[in-house]
Amino acid sequence: MFPVLMLFLIPIGGGIPAGVLLARGHGIAWPVTAGLYFVSDVILAFLFEPVLRLLIAAGRKIPPLARVTDAVRRAMDRTAAQYGGGGAGPFALIMIAFGVDPMTGRAAAAAAGHGFVSGWTIAITGDMIYFGVIMVATLRLNSVIGDPNRTMAVILAAMIFLPMLVRRLKSAYSRRLDPDHAPEPR
């Protein structure tokens, strides 16, 4: 189980399909695999929180960092607005953690005024939903392909390129709906 946990601690998405397939190969049931991923998120919370607190404190005292902190807060508010409402409510914050990563989710939760427990609960909730989607996709695809290496390649490619495609399609769709963005006459 330790090698699976170590893969889940890798701070990029590639650790998920690799860890899921390693767990499957070692006969670890999916609920235990999900539990290991949850433990990795809790470890991350205790490792990242002091860094976040240090950055917040430095942002209050160092003017250039204060400007960066303010820019990050505005960016988080714009991102949260995409998920409904004008504020960064729990659903919007969960979607940030789902769409980006738990550290960004926690930073957004901190910017919205959430403390350690509520902020990490929000961030971990979003990350666990993301994990569930990737785990199911990995296990289903591997049952079809039958080759863990090819499965990982496909899942990693999907993790990289699907968000880009969705953003591009969303942008094109919103431009079509925007009356100020009418096509130029020929």
Give a quick set of tags describing it:
8 helices, mainly alpha
Secondary-structure topology with pairs:
Blueprint (H helix, E strand, L loop, with lengths): L1 H7 L6 H11 L4 H32 L1 H19 L8 H10 L2 H10 L4 H30 L2 H30 L9
Helix pairs in contact: 1-2, 1-3, 2-7, 3-4, 3-7, 4-5, 5-6, 5-7, 6-7, 7-8
Descriptive notes:
There is one protein chain. By secondary structure, the protein is mainly α. It has one domain (2-178). It is built from eight helices and no strands. It has helices at 2-8, 15-25, 30-61, 63-81, 90-99, 102-111, 116-145, 148-177. The termini are far apart. The mean pLDDT is 86.
Distance linking N and C termini = 64 Å
Alpha carbon gyration radius: 19 Å
Low-confidence stretches: none
Portion of residues in helices? over 70%
Global structural class: mainly alpha
* Record field, number of beta strands: 0
* Average pLDDT metric: 86
- How many domains in all? 1
User: What general outline do the C-alpha atoms trace?
Assistant: globular
The largest pleated sheet is described as:
none
